[in-house]
Amino acid sequence: MVTVALLPAGSVSDEAARLFFQQEDVQYKHHRLISDVFLSTANDISQYSVIPIENTIDGSVSLHMDWLVHEVDLPIQAEWIYPSNQNLIGRRSELVNEHGEYDFSRVKKIISHPVAMSQCLKFIREYLPEDVEKEHVSSTAESVRIVRDLPEQGVFAIGTKTAAVNNGLDVLVESVTDHQNNYTRFFLVGNKPYTGRETAQMRTSILVTLPEDFPGALHQVLSAFAWRRINLTRIESRPTKKKLGSYYFYIEIKYSLNERLLQLALEEITAIGCHVRVLGSYPCFTYDQLITEQQMY
Ligand SMILES: O=C(O)C(=O)C[C@]1(C(=O)O)C=C[C@@H](O)C=C1
């Protein structure tokens, strides 16, 4: 039995976890806040947490990156991709006029997770009133629950179809995201190595802090990978939070940490005075892979 901490039932995280763990016996521990999703596994070495980390439209989920880097020490054990399909959810009777047509001027307020909301800005701008109030909450599932429990009219949520069904609400407009192909990358984090799946493409995530700010420092770091022809898939700078203007670099490498070539590159970076912290070396699963498995199962 695997124990997994994650956001509430009906969130994108919940849908993604159910696809990832489709063939396993899982106990889900749902938390309203992402901080509790992290802390619950930080305090229990036998479980994992499901963390949304990056989105096609909105990019990095900075809050979650910061938790991984500054607040907890939880190695990344796996990565997978899941489509974030967002929908306008509420009660049909509150949106239709006397002719049975949608009247979007009836929308006074919309509620969602900030990342989900920012995936749908074009829809909000084009269809909803200019002065529509926007409220951010801790998950899309939470926004749908709030709309269900609100006595007041004209409040709608942006969330998953699963959350609409769970709460007995209507999916009023399907797929309200600004771009099709909206996907979120998820990390499975925890202290226990994850061995539940066959191997896949491996990736390694590291944090590099430069010794001091000198010309060409980042170039030197990157060249340790470049001349070895090691492929990087992502690089991002984030504040160290120690002083203004001080950054670390988050780097993803398309190699396992077990590969000698990567170890040599990391030794070279350390030799020039950089501090390297490995956040994890883990298998990556595509959405197609997981869906194919589901169909075979
Ligand atoms: O609120 C949810 O449904 C979540 O799972 C959180 C979250 C996120 O934090 O990025 C996950 C995926 C979506 O892209 C939007 C929100």
Explain what the structure shows.
- This protein is α/β, with parallel strands linked by helices and 297 residues long.
- It has 2 domains: 2-83 and 183-296, 2-Layer Sandwich (Alpha-Beta Plaits), CATH 3.30.70; 87-173, D-Maltodextrin-Binding Protein, domain 2, CATH 3.40.190.10.
- Helices cover 31% and strands 31% of the residues.
- The protein has helices at residues 12-20, 34-42, 62-71, 92-95, 114-118, 121-127, 140-149, 161-166, 217-226, 260-271, 287-296, and strands at 2-6, 26-30, 48-55, 59-60, 76-83, 87-90, 109-112, 133-136, 155-159, 170-173, 183-189, 201-209, 232-239, 247-253, 275-285.
- A hairpin with a 7-residue loop joins β13 (232-239) and β14 (247-253).
- The structure holds prephenic acid.
- Residues 7, 11-13, 52, 55, 61, 84, 113, 115-116, 139-141, 184 line the site of prephenic acid.
Helix content: 25-40%
> What is the N-to-C succession of helices and strands?
EHEHEEHEEHEHHEHEHEEEHEEHEH
How many individual domains? Answer: 2
CATH-level-4 superfamily name of the largest domain: ACT domain
| Number of β-strand runs | 15
Overall morphology: globular
CATH topology of the largest domain: Alpha-Beta Plaits
Q: Which CATH class of the largest domain? A: Alpha Beta
Counting H and I runs of at least 4 residues, what is the number of helices? 11
C-alpha Rg, in Å? 21 Å
Average pLDDT metric = 94
**Major sheet details:** 10 strands, mixed
| Ligand list | prephenic acid
Low-pLDDT parts are: none
Keywords: Amino-acid biosynthesis, Aromatic amino acid biosynthesis, Lyase, Phenylalanine biosynthesis
GO biological process, one term: L-phenylalanine biosynthetic process
GO molecular function: prephenate dehydratase activity
Pfam family, one: ACT
